[in-house]
Amino acid sequence: MKxxxxxxxxxSFTCPHCAAISQQEWWGRTWDxxxxxxxxxxxxxxxxxxxxxKFTLWLEEQMLxxxxxxxxxxxxxMPDNVLKLYHEAASIMTQSPRGAAALLRLSVxxxxxxxxxxxxxxxxxxxxxxxxxxxxxxQQSLDIVRVTGNDAVHPGLIDTDNQQxxxxxxxxxxxxxxxxxxxxxxVSGIYSSLAPSTHAAIAKRDAP
Length: 208
Hints:
The chain is an alpha+beta fold. It has six helices and five strands, in the order βββββαααααα. It has a five-stranded antiparallel β-sheet with strand order 1-2-3-4-5, with no helix packed on it. β3 and β4 (55-59) form a beta hairpin. The radius of gyration is 21 Å and the shape is flat. 27% of the residues are buried.
């Protein structure tokens, strides 16, 4: 799903409320209660989504409400325990990109437990998943989030104070969920709808 990060005074972006890419209507005020015709001169800005009619509140370039931040909408198949950490990371992304990176690393570690791993060492969990046939693109995504999250706690070569760098981690977490949970679930649903005779023919084909 395409995601256009919310931005103050932008004509359209992915609404943090309804997740639709929608046109935005804007109003502005200044601290002295004045209202300029040029919205760029206003300190306080209010955007209204044409799709869901809900509002965003901004202080200059920083979105104050809702507190979900400008991260992509989480994958609908994201487990609740992972989703909680994802939302927490999104809520502090603007104020603390480093903290958001660390939380996303934790969300991946929690996800590994949901995928049947021990959860004690994320590196060992990824290695185990690879031995079970983990696709390379997912392995790379997991390792990027792991390494970047490590650098957030133990500073290294990755600039985890950079919002753009950390924003990419949210995309990667969604990619991991898509490959490991959402896609298998969709394929399994379609496969189970095949006729019993088709299942029998496939089983016969694949028998030793």
